[in-house]
Protein: Helix-turn-helix domain-containing protein
Organism: Acetobacterium tundrae
Amino acid sequence: MNQLETLQTNQKRISDLVDIKTLQEILDAFTTTTGLMANIVDVEGISIFPRKGIKKCCKFCRIIYNLEGGKNRCQAAYKRAGKQAALFGEPYIFRCPSGLIEWAAPIILNAEHVGTIICGQVLMWEPEEFFWIELRKMNQPLTDDFEELFEAVGELAIVTGNQVQASAYLLYVVANYIMKAGWENYEQSQEFAMQRTLYHAEIENRKNLEKNHEPVLASFLIDEGEMLANLQSNQKKSKAYLEGLISSLRYEAHQNLLLMRGKMTELLVILSRVASQMGLEADIFQGINSQVILQIYQTDSIESIGVLTSRAVDAYLEAIDKSVTKPENPNIVLMIDYIVNHYTENLTVDDIADSACLSTGYAGRIFKEQMGMPIMDYVLTVRVEKSKKLLLNPHYQIQTIAESVGYGDAGYFTKVFRKAEGITPTQFRKVHKR
């Protein structure tokens, strides 16, 4: 993907996920309340908003923007600041090429940096003689006339370090919350679209069979043994299998509401029997079925019935996954929770045993019996899985990732990762390069 395509993808992603007008109103309200300018740029440092209607620039910056090369210089600075903010996963305070204080807060979606909140255009001290000298020097590549620029400095806000940190964090939290909500809605719509695609593909397949006079079963039968085999495989395969069943049964209903209700109810009942064979507690699948089946019989939309059944499938898969991996011993649960919450630290077996108030020897023995591996092997597994998610983001350096999962040395982290995965972190990144 070339630079232009990457730019268009990121711009489209943000605009698809959230209402740009809503974001603009939030930033305008922030500016009105605090007096601080705010903007959102894509990964190339270019604003996602139309040039008109966004309170994004103070007079000083408008002058810089209108100078030849000024706009490109600002965008390049925002691009660099955004990358730094994404690298550390928190607001990044910097001094722009024209001499003002600004900060960048990363917008992260699905472990990918998709944009940056730029805020500031302020000073953190009263201008003194050296400031004017430095300002002139920094902007000489753009202009020889500094009278208007110096005059605009008088309109800049002077803020404290605490104000900078507070406002940066506020925008970071608000924007990422909004984007996360938008991302969840987007994923949901994609899931529904996939379901509709499967359904229409099944219809076309059945039409072709009928057209060619091939026999088509009058009723689609669900094979419990086949369902059990599929649910015992990975979650992705299980999901595809169950969505296929929904599509097939939906076709068999022939747009008949009563038949659709009956077939989806039958699917959920059979799914509950299979889940019971896999050890899922009865109250879990009974709770899923009672709620969803009630909703199925309350709606008159065949489309909604399909969506409700798909959501029930997700609930089953999540519950099955938890029941398979969740240990029964509460002491094991305590130790695993401690590992998950402290894997970034220099963990020892003693620390983990202490979290469950157990002796080191006893903790190690029951952990291996329950989980099938020593405690520190489990710690390694958690760290490697966490690092794999970080490696998908090309902005993170290997050293940074190593430190973020509890290894101070990148070389040792690489050795551990290669032992666990069979390839180095760099090779893993290349294989999974977007």
Summary: Residues 1-12, 198-203, 213-220 have pLDDT under 50 and may be disordered. The CA atoms of residues 100 and 127 lie 11 Å apart.
